[in-house]
């Protein structure tokens, strides 16, 4: 006979946590995708600060609008993936998509958080540029958070 306890409802709590985290990741990805499409259509909000530079201010990357459109499309696709993973739609994903993409997305963001060891990521050497400061305070922690939450959802 089972003693009344909170452990009996653990599966329900875990499902609720996965649902909340899926919604949260969806919103984050939709916002990030929207920012990238803002740049595609000529917006400048945050554009310069989002690109790594050398110590002398020279850009390391010079993305074109098509690059922003591809990244924006990927980010919105990730948002849709987590929306569907959370069971927030009557549409479902094939098991192989859920299983594989569910691991790929967090690993991509974990690699981004770790970085290239020079201009980008937690272990970058160039830290005293506008991008370097933003990357330390916002971009890399956000990527690490996305990775952790994505892995939590996948294991949940």
UniProtKB/TrEMBL annotation:
One Pfam family linked to the record: DUF3995
Keywords assigned: Membrane, Transmembrane, Transmembrane helix
Residue stretches spanning the membrane: 12-31, 66-84, 96-115, 136-155
Domain of life: Bacteria
Matching InterPro entries: DUF3995
UniProt name for this protein: Uncharacterized protein DUF3995
Species this chain originates from: Dyadobacter jejuensis
